[in-house]
């Protein structure tokens, strides 16, 4: 038989099989846009802004619908009620981690963020306990953040009020807080090893938010057999883990079982205690992946929020002036801000929340998965199905936040000017998989921003009206455009 005919027949059978599989699954899953064979719905989605595409589809298909990334079905939950029902009301059912093929290549199911089942529960429990009970060392975490805020101020002074790109300086501060917990010590802001780590984090967040990675995660064969920026992510992760492994070996050589110095020591001690456990989770692989997760989640998300926050404050000088007025009134110019000040600074607290709401840092959340076959709103979702929860639809809900596309601290203030809490604030996700470092991140954002605004006037190098706050990429994360500003000492 002619090879061309054979090829056509094989492709036809493959397409028919694909259609049959998709239609049979769609009989159980929520309805959604009709997928193409093999390609799924990828041509109906804007890979530059998946979140926006899902919002458009929700207007046609409702708050719960299915889209196909390639041949893999993904259930999308859009709007506060659907997201709350899944992540909070039925948190255990939706506590799995959905598939992200690129991270599967780098983490291999280890660590906290991208693990599942027993590994996830053990690593998360241990990490939270260590961060709470010991990870902060003999000083409180607030002391560490305040010390780093003072170092940050000194570094900003060295810019001599000249225009500068704040990316690396703002990244160094939260990274150093994590370093002090993991390695016991902080780095100098000019340390080459430190700058290399920061560079790799910054590269990775930009790459994983790019359209190419959205395509790679849809068609994983591209990751294994094609060149592209995904290989840079894999290489950066490998380099970071090699550095952590070096530090771990140094710790092992000087470990005192009765006097742990930092997170690595605590993990090594736990490894020794658990070494006879048949279902051992405390392994070197989990140590490297867990610390890598803490690094990534504890550094890049906070630094990106700070960087985006300063851009918004440049764009809205009237907001900046009100924050500085509140700082002068409550803290003054000579005392370091502390976390207790937050309760007496409702406007500043509202500004920090509004920055997080407005920038919508992780628009579609880190993917979840259902842990067993479940019935949800009269649909049947099979075990392991990936779930995308649209945080955009919650943070930009126009009933809760009038004019959600406008940056307005008033979204978090009542008529009397008091801070107004809302369950719609899901910047850290919600439920069982809520960000493990939420408390630390909230503290850092408040203390770093208030300390900067206490010591400096922010000066834009362009007219505030001309500042564009549109993210340059909006895939996994919303990354702000590059910009320069001047830090003028007060």
Low-confidence stretches: 22-27
Walk across the major sheet and give the strand order. 1-2-7-4-3
| Rounded Rg | 24 Å
Helix content class: 40-55%
Topology as a string of helices (H) and strands (E)? HHEEHEHHHHHHHHHHHHEEEEHHEEEE
Structural class: alpha+beta
Binned strand content: 5-15%
Number of strands: 11
Largest sheet: 5 strands, mixed
Described by the principal axes of the CA atoms, the overall outline is: globular
Question: Counting H and I runs of at least 4 residues, what is the number of helices?
Answer: 17
Could you report the average pLDDT, rounded to the nearest whole number? 91
Give the termini separation: 83 Å
Cofactor: heme
Family: Belongs to the cytochrome P450 family.
Signal peptide: 1-26
GO molecular function: heme binding; iron ion binding; oxidoreductase activity, acting on paired donors, with incorporation or reduction of molecular oxygen, reduced flavin or flavoprotein as one donor, and incorporation of one atom of oxygen
């Amino acid at each position: 038989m002619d090879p061309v005919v054979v090829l056509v027949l094989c492709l036809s059978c493959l397409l028919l099989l694909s259609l049959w599989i998709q239609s049979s699954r769609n009989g159980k899953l929520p309805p959604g846009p009709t997928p193409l064979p093999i390609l799924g719905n990828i041509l109906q989605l804007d890979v530059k802004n998946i979140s926006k595409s899902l919002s458009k589809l929700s207007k046609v298909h409702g708050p719960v619908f299915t889209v196909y990334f390639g041949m893999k079905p993904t259930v999308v939950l859009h709007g506060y009620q659907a997201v709350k029902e899944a992540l909070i009301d039925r948190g255990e059912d939706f506590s799995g981690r959905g598939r992200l093929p690129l991270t599967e290549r780098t983490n291999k199911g280890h660590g906290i963020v991208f693990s599942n089942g027993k590994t996830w529960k053990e690593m998360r429990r241990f990490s939270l306990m260590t961060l709470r009970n010991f990870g902060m060392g003999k000083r409180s975490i607030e002391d560490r953040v305040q010390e780093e805020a003072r170092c940050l101020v000194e570094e900003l002074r060295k810019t001599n009020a000249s225009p500068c790109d704040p990316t690396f300086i703002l990244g160094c501060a939260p990274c150093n807080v994590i370093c002090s917990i993991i390695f016991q010590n902080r780095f100098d802001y000019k340390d080459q090893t430190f700058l290399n780590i920061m560079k790799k984090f910054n590269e990775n967040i930009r790459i994983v938010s790019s359209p190419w990675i959205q395509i790679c995660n849809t068609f994983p064969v591209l990751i294994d057999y094609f060149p592209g920026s995904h290989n840079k992510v894999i290489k950066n992760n490998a380099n970071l883990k090699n550095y952590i492994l070096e530090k771990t070996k140094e710790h092992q050589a000087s470990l005192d079982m009765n006097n742990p110095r930092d997170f690595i020591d605590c993990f090594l001690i736990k490894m020794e205690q658990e070494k006879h456990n048949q279902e051992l989770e405390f392994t070197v692989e989990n140590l490297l992946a867990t610390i890598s997760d803490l690094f990534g989640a504890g550094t890049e998300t906070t630094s990106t929020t700070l960087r985006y926050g300063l851009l918004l404050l440049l764009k809205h000088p009237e907001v900046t002036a009100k924050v500085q007025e509140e700082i002068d009134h409550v803290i003054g110019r000579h005392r370091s801000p502390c976390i207790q000040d937050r309760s007496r600074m409702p406007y500043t607290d509202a500004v920090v929340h509004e920055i997080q709401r407005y920038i919508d840092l992780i628009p579609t959340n880190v993917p979840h998965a259902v842990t067993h076959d479940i019935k949800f709103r009269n649909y049947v979702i099979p075990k392991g199905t990936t779930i995308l929860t649209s945080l955009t639809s919650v943070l930009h809900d126009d009933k809760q936040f009038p004019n959600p596309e406008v940056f307005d601290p008033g979204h978090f203030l009542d008529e009397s000017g008091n801070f107004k809490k809302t369950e719609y604030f899901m910047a850290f996700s919600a439920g069982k998989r809520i960000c493990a470092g939420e408390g630390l991140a909230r503290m850092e954002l408040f203390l770093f921003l208030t300390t900067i605004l206490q010591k400096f006037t922010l000066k834009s190098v362009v007219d505030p009206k001309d500042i564009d706050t549109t993210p340059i990429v909006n895939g996994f994360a919303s990354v702000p455009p590059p910009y320069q500003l001047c830090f003028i000492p007060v």
